[in-house]
Design a protein that fits this description.
Blueprint lengths: L8 E5 L5 H10 L9 E4 L5 E8 L4 E5 L2 H10 L11 H22 L1
Parallel strand pairs: 1-4
Antiparallel strand pairs: 2-3, 3-4
Helix pairs in contact: 1-3
């Protein structure tokens, strides 16, 4: 049985997300977004597709169609021509974001 998250749910367009959240999404989905989209009915009953992404304090549903997911990756210089996150960018983002998580964990001890 799936567990229900008690985190606040945030439904937003990718281009309206904080750049830090966009970077974390790239780390979570280094090979592109389109294969990870889910569909759900919004509060108006319309079928919407979105990319799920969870942080320590929020559950994001990032609205995008398959075409938009492809376009975001295609236009983002952090991804190569095959739609994969470049290794040097991945290393840089991991250092930036994973390092933050580890520093917070150490501070909590």
């Amino acid at each position: 049985m799936a567990t229900v998250s008690t985190k606040p749910r945030v439904i937003k367009d990718y281009d309206r997300l904080d750049p830090s959240v966009q970077e974390q999404i790239k780390l979570e989905y280094p090979y592109g977004f389109e294969d990870h989209l889910i569909s759900f009915n919004n509060k108006e009953g319309q079928r919407v597709s979105a990319l799920p992404f969870e942080t320590d304090d929020r559950y994001y549903l990032v609205r995008m169609t398959i075409a938009e997911a492809q376009q975001i990756v295609e236009e983002d210089e952090d991804f190569d021509d095959d739609g994969n996150l470049k290794d040097d960018i991945k290393d840089e983002l991991e250092e930036k974001h994973v390092g933050l998580d580890e520093a917070e964990d150490i501070a909590d001890e």
